[in-house]
Amino acid sequence: MLTKLLVSSVAAFLICPFIGIGQQLSELDYKLYAEIIRDESPQTAKAVVVIKELTAEGESQIVDTAIRKRDENVLAQLSQGVPLKPAVLDSSSLQAFMSYFGRSSSDAQINNRPSFSPSAYLIPKSKFNSFFMNDALRGWKRFYKAFPLADGVFEFSGIGYSRHLDKAVVYRAIRRNELNGNGMLLLLEKTSANRWSVIHRFTLWNN
């Protein structure tokens, strides 16, 4: 079924215009990032840290290759055994994937103070890395001394949208303490309440 769906949708791959990100993030981008932070933070979280720079996550290419080659085994492994329903890779979702993988590089940053909940400290990647220089084992202790209320650290890529802006693909990483983090490529769908909901996750790394 998945193979037939992908074959029938190949035209959407080729004719869909890439909806890439520009130099400035849009209100839609910020709303989607905010939804992910809210949904993936404990209800008790008072704050999080967000890396300002968008990341170009190279490991996401394994998803791109698997979709193009229609490799259902790889997609199932990345999905950690969660079956891919036909709706996950319908034409709208495929547009979002192609927009994500086809977007041009950008130096856009999360620079303003969006209404994240829990609230967010926005820091450059260099500041986060500085906590782990010289003595990486004590890095998280230094980090939580600087940000005692932070539940963890979020990092995002630019976002790929479908033509009608009803599906989106984005990479996000979460790091909390030592050996407690993961990076995933998320497929999201806009709900009837005009909010974003994750409908599928591809796990790229765990620690």
Give a description of the structure.
This protein has 207 residues and is an alpha/beta fold. Helices cover 32% and strands 24% of the residues. The chain has eight helices and seven strands, in the order αααβαααβααβββββ. The chain has helices at residues 2-8, 10-15, 27-39, 61-68, 72-78, 91-102, 125-130, 139-146, and strands spanning 47-51, 119-123, 150-156, 160-161, 167-175, 181-190, 196-206. Strands 1, 2, 3, 4, 5, 6 and 7 form a seven-stranded mixed beta sheet that branches. Helix 4 packs antiparallel against helix 5 (72-78). It is globular, with a radius of gyration of 17 Å. It starts with a helix and ends with a strand.
Task: Kindly list the characteristics that best describe this protein.
single chain, 207 residues, alpha/beta, 7-stranded mixed beta sheet, 7 strands, 24% strand, globular
Please give a quick description of this structure.
With 207 residues, the chain is α/β, with parallel strands linked by helices. The chain contains eight helices and seven strands, in the order H-H-H-E-H-H-H-E-H-H-E-E-E-E-E.
SS field, number of helical segments: 8
Task: Kindly state the percentage of residues in helix.
Answer: 25-40%
Structural class: alpha/beta
Tell me the series of helices and strands, N- to C-terminal: HHHEHHHEHHEEEEE
Termini gap:
34 Å
Summarize the SSE layout with pairings:
Layout (H helix, E strand, L loop, with lengths): L1 H7 L1 H6 L11 H13 L7 E5 L9 H8 L3 H7 L12 H12 L16 E5 L1 H6 L8 H8 L3 E7 L3 E2 L5 E9 L5 E10 L5 E11 L1
Parallel strand pairs: 1-2, 1-3
Antiparallel strand pairs: 3-5, 4-5, 5-6, 6-7
